[in-house]
Design goal:
Distance between the termini: 24 Å
Structural class: alpha/beta
Number of domains: 2
Strand order of the largest sheet: 3-2-1-4-5
Helix content: 40-55%
Number of strands: 12
CATH superfamily of the largest domain: ATPase, nucleotide binding domain
Number of helices: 9
CATH class of the largest domain: Alpha Beta
Largest sheet: 5 strands, mixed
CATH topology of the largest domain: Nucleotidyltransferase, domain 5
Radius of gyration: 20 Å
Bound molecules: adenosine-5'-triphosphate
Amino acid sequence: MRRLCLGIESTAHTFGAAIASDDGRIVSDVRDIYVPEAGKGIHPTGAAQHHSSVADKVVIAAFKDAHVRPEKIDAVAFSCGPGLGPCLRVGATVARAISVYFQKPLVPVNHAIAHIEIASLTTGARDPLVVLVSGGHTAIATYAARRWRICGETEDITLGNLLDMFARATGLSTPGGPEVERMAENGREMLDLPYTVKGNDVAYSGLLTAALREHKKGTQMADLCFSLQEVAFSMLTEATERALAHTGKRELLLTGGVAANRRLQSMLESIAQEHEAEFRVVDRRFSGDSGAQIAWTGILAFKAGLTVSVEESHVRPRWRLDEVDVAWRR
Ligand code: ATP
């Protein structure tokens, strides 16, 4: 008989609930997204209040859409970290309440691993080099001996942060990534912006400062967005190419919110081709945060016996991807 898992996501801007089955189907997927005040970033308490106010309707809708009664699920998974503490606590509290009331096992899920697992599910990737790019992550990772090992990452802000902070400071609407992508389509002139790769890590804060300086000088936004994308994505592509050459992986998998960007996709696709690796991108519906990624990873972890008692189910705002024991992967 197929098994079902409810997944609850609440790491940052999105409160999501979804139901996944162990045959790899996302049976329902409902989200409600917190929108910060114009020109401001996510306020953790404001986002947590948003999540508390929508949690009941989102969870009920996830069950309704799936035509599943709560008694019928086998496990309740929640985003345990990394993320914003106040936001994580809302999702964990909702998950604990459902787990206790319906007497279902509770499964803690690492949100970054969940970005990788939903991408693996939707693309069929089996043993990829992963590029995870979002508001919270910029990492290149490969799996070995029960852990995802980091082959390169950001030394300061993430790629998503770079695009969002640039957009906020220049009056573009948020989230910044899609706006920068749209503006860049009309850019032609390549500006001189700093390119910083250290070892196999990238650093984006100098690039942000320089781009904002150009904006103050009155540089055309289309050229600025174009150049910002070209430099930021080339840095990551260089580090990824080196990791691909070193690991000899035959698949390159792009996931996380920034994975939706077509220019980034095409740069990574070209290096994958050069190294005879298949290039795969997470299904666009699941590139950003969702309950689906938590429900699916929850099913995998639950089947591997990775449950937690309510007493021990504290959230882990700084839980790194490479600290997770991935007992379900071969
Ligand atoms: P994490 O998932 O690591 O906790 P998060 O919650 O901010 O971080 P996601 O929802 O996965 O992340 O991704 C949001 C990010 O994706 C934002 O920075 C947003 O600007 C970026 N993004 C979304 N669409 C695009 C796009 N088309 N091009 C570039 N960036 C994009």
